[in-house]
Specification:
Blueprint (H helix, E strand, L loop, with lengths): L1 H27 L1 E10 L10 E8 L5 E3 L2 E3 L4 E7 L7 E4 L1 H8 L7 E8 H12 L10 H12 L12 H8 L6 E2 L12 E4 L2 E4 L5
Antiparallel strand pairs: 1-2, 1-7, 2-5, 3-4, 5-6, 6-9, 7-8, 9-10
Amino acid sequence: MIRTIRFFCMLIMFVCLFFTFYISVSAASDIAELSIFSDGTGGALGAGTHSFIALKNISGFVITIGTYDVDPDDEITVGIWGNKLPHKGLWYNMESYFVNQKDSYTNRVSLSMNIDNTQLETITEIIKSSNRWSCFFNCTNLAAKIWNAVSSEKLSCGFWNTPSSLANSIKSYEFYETGKPIKSKNTSNVIYVYKGINILCESFS
């Protein structure tokens, strides 16, 4: 009887240790690739064109980024806009559509890093609280805020918070890329967020 109790106690301890180890390893495993992009060319007074982020699911299961469920090996872009109707604020896949369907942001530069679940949760909270746009919180602010929240390679938007300043900051790192591909999306994947709800928007201006 005592041996049986001792056996079950040891078995329970083993199971607890296994799940503790599994959870800790899962939390520390990379599940997504984060990229920050900025096209510092063009724009009024040489301020540049646009800044945004992309997130690619490199895990084997569906992950949630902001309010968007992303399948394995899929990639989305996230950015905020002040000049796109019918919504001023956060959009998913607008940049992917423009890059692949309209050949936009051809001079984009980028940095990339892998992130774990804890870092993804941090990014998700920032995305969910950033559905707005103003002169004081624009596309460059959001992209840099997300990147700086999880990366040790810090980036600056400059005094005027412009894509040009962010692009120069990105290029200060030797491992930056130019023209990094972004997975193609069409208008059926372009979504904006209204009161926490994803709204499909196949027509925008």
